[in-house]
């Protein structure tokens, strides 16, 4: 049964509010022989070995203009990207100047299109030579990362508008050193993850302190993964408080006073059952197994404001894996409605960055989840195909408004497909990715903000 569209008021954004898109080197760069390629070749990445041109990713190293032109067509004000640590830092105290020059070329392409640059220093990957020494479990790694960061920030200081030291540090630490879904694939103790997080915290503080002393006027933050942790029943609700406190707040509360803005990535609710994330049958999910919950973005942002006061916030990632593109329009609109509400309540949110432009390699899930505003035909030389949501985001950015009709049309589109099957990239346990997607029905659930 369809749920009636009932938008009440338009949504608007001032001209100083920044819209953006984001990618990461490990997702998009070709000619990159990194730990993720080794992980994939060894069969540890789903939907990788069975794909066409898997190691090409999106050719952002050799053909960055394709993605940059798409971002420019959207009209975004911010392009978030990263530099690959291993590509630049090839050995202790050894840096590849040619790689630095190429990154400068790419960043200049972005700046020439009148987009601001948000640059991430660590996005889920370490150099192979550091991985061989234990990665972030080795206490020397933070010193190497400081050397790398100082090299990059010194070279790119005048070209970067916003810096991100770490992307989702707690996700990386637990996936790499506790659950084994990220390279090096260790299934170990939570204490190992906590130790690595402590090392990253020290590194962040050192980088922040150094940069504000040595550089002109750096704007430095993080991209912290924030999920709305919840559960059904008093026991699971109580357990969700513990999981949420660790996963959301462990890292940021220890760097309080060492951020110029609080960047956070939000994808949805984390339903807890028995101290673990589970699939809740009463929720709608993205292909990547994330429960859709725009209200959670509102609640998380309010908590950030309560804990960090007037520190500016930036939504550094938000998006949905949806190959059909039936859900994405309403997902985008409803999360922006939450942002509009927050701004009306004097929460200082500087901008919103959509993940991502084009379908790419989503870490251990490989090429199965489709997060892009643009599809890619991997069997046809990576041909790009713009989805309808590409034009929706473009219209929102241009008009700085989401009309009542646009809100209702997006919801009616979704409702017209209720009961139809769509691809789903998670097994029944909600954790394991799939080489080939299964089918899941679009449900009649009202998850709107």
Quick structural gist:
The protein is of the alpha/beta class and 449 residues long. It has a single domain, classed as TIM Barrel (Alpha-Beta Barrel). The chain has helices spanning 25-28, 35-41, 64-74, 85-88, 97-112, 128-131, 141-156, 169-177, 190-214, 234-253, 294-308, 328-344, 388-399, 404-415, and strands at 11-12, 18-22, 78-82, 89-91, 94-95, 116-122, 162-167, 220-225, 228-230, 262-265, 269-273, 276-277, 313-318, 349-354, 374-377, 383-386, 401-402, 421-426, 433-441.
Task: Characterise this structure.
With 449 residues, this protein is of the alpha/beta class. It has a single domain (11-441), classed as TIM Barrel (Alpha-Beta Barrel), CATH 3.20.20. It is 38% helix and 19% strand. The protein contains 14 helices and 19 strands. It has helices spanning 25-28, 35-41, 64-74, 85-88, 97-112, 128-131, 141-156, 169-177, 190-214, 234-253, 294-308, 328-344, 388-399, 404-415; strands at 11-12, 18-22, 78-82, 89-91, 94-95, 116-122, 162-167, 220-225, 228-230, 262-265, 269-273, 276-277, 313-318, 349-354, 374-377, 383-386, 401-402, 421-426, 433-441. The strands form 6 sheets. Strands 2-3-6-7-8-10-13-14 form an 8-stranded parallel barrel, surrounded by 6 helices. The protein has a 3-stranded mixed beta sheet with strand order 9-11-12. Helix 12 links the parallel strand 13 (313-318) and strand 14 (349-354). Helix 8 runs antiparallel to helix 9, helix 11 (294-308) packs parallel to helix 12 and helix 12 runs antiparallel to helix 14 (404-415). The protein is globular, with a radius of gyration of 21 Å. 50% of the residues are buried.
